Q: What sequence folds into this?
């Protein structure tokens, strides 16, 4: 399967908004519930010159299957940014797509923004996401509970 990252557009945001509402997907990602209008507004902020976030779409064999993004971009902080990803096509889970997308995305943001470190949070109950982070070279730094959910914080030093 050929995995490529592409530019994110407002139409992707609208598709993601609908697909992410699937209860099985929603249960796996630490995201806040927003309206479609808020999601589109957040996307538009990523297009501003001084944006502290950046996202791309994940395509597998030419088909849009998910999103990957970094947020809280700040070269003065550790980590320099946080990363999130979501594979929207459940039939493709477990096939290495998210891992490959994360590997490609790390290279993109390291060169584009000069990031040296990247962090990520995943629910401990989401074993697949924990494996994606570990396969992409992230190290677990700690576990914590928030809103009654056990989560893990991972971090990675990026090669610039």
A:
């Amino acid at each position: 399967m050929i995995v490529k990252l592409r530019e994110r557009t407002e139409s992707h945001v609208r598709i993601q908004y609908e697909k992410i509402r699937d209860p099985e997907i929603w249960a796996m990602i630490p995201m806040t519930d927003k309206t479609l209008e808020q999601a589109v507004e957040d996307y538009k902020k990523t297009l501003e010159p001084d944006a502290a976030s950046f996202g791309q779409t994940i395509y597998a064999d030419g088909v849009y299957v998910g999103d990957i993004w970094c947020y809280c971009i700040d070269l003065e902080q550790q980590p320099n940014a946080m990363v999130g990803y979501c594979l929207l096509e459940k039939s493709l889970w477990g096939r290495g797509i998210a891992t490959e997308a994360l590997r490609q995305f790390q290279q993109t943001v390291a060169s584009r923004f000069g990031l040296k470190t990247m962090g990520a949070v995943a629910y401990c109950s989401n074993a697949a996401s924990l494996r994606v982070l570990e396969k992409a070279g992230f190290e677990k730094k700690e576990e914590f509970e928030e809103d009654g959910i056990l989560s893990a914080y991972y971090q990675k030093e990026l090669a610039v």
The first strand starts at residue 3 and ends at 7. DSSP finds five helices and seven strands in the chain. The beta strands are 3-7, 54-60, 63-71, 82-87, 117-123, 139-146, 149-157.
